[in-house]
Design a protein that fits this description.
Blueprint: E1 2-3, E2 5-10, E3 13-18, H1 25-34, E4 38-41, E5 45-50, E6 53-57, E7 65-68, E8 72-75, E9 81-92, E10 101-105, E11 108-115, H2 121-131
Parallel strand pairs: 3-9, 9-11
Antiparallel strand pairs: 1-5, 2-3, 2-4, 5-6, 6-9, 7-8, 10-11
Length: about 140
């Protein structure tokens, strides 16, 4: 399956960034890469489910490339990754302590974060992937 989505890997945990064209998928991927993530794919991501694990990869034609608006296409190291988290750029989170969101991808239900208008948001995604989240009771 191929999606109009970007993806990065943080400490062995893959993030699929989905949203409409112009929603900021590549920009978020670049911000996460600046914080230590590694590119999987920009703009088009291939997904395959084997034994309930979703593997993400880039199509060969764009592997190792990411668009930086106003600069052009940049080269980057690229890896394949196992999907652990979906970030939906079309949904905006306004709650300070939001409810748990999820998305189903290839029959697998995965945690999903909605876009947050905060400069700390990319850092929070990295921390989420490194150590998880504590939901208030």
């Amino acid at each position: 399956m191929r999606l109009h989505a970007s993806a990065v890997d943080v400490s062995g945990r893959g993030v699929l960034i989905v949203g409409a064209s112009g929603s900021g998928k590549s920009s978020l991927a670049l911000q996460l890469m600046a914080l230590g993530a590694t590119l999987v794919s920009d703009d088009q991501t291939e997904l395959a489910c084997v034994d309930d694990i979703i593997q993400m990869t880039a199509p060969d034609s764009i592997k190792g490339l990411i668009e930086a608006r106003g600069i052009g296409v940049l080269r980057a190291d690229a890896v394949d990754a196992v999907l652990h988290l979906v970030v939906d750029m079309d949904e905006v989170e306004c709650k300070r302590f939001p409810e748990h969101h999820s998305k189903t991808v290839l029959g697998q239900t995965l945690p999903c974060l909605h876009k947050v208008d905060s400069p700390a948001w990319p850092s929070a995604i990295v921390q989420y992937l490194k150590c998880g989240i504590e939901y208030p009771e």
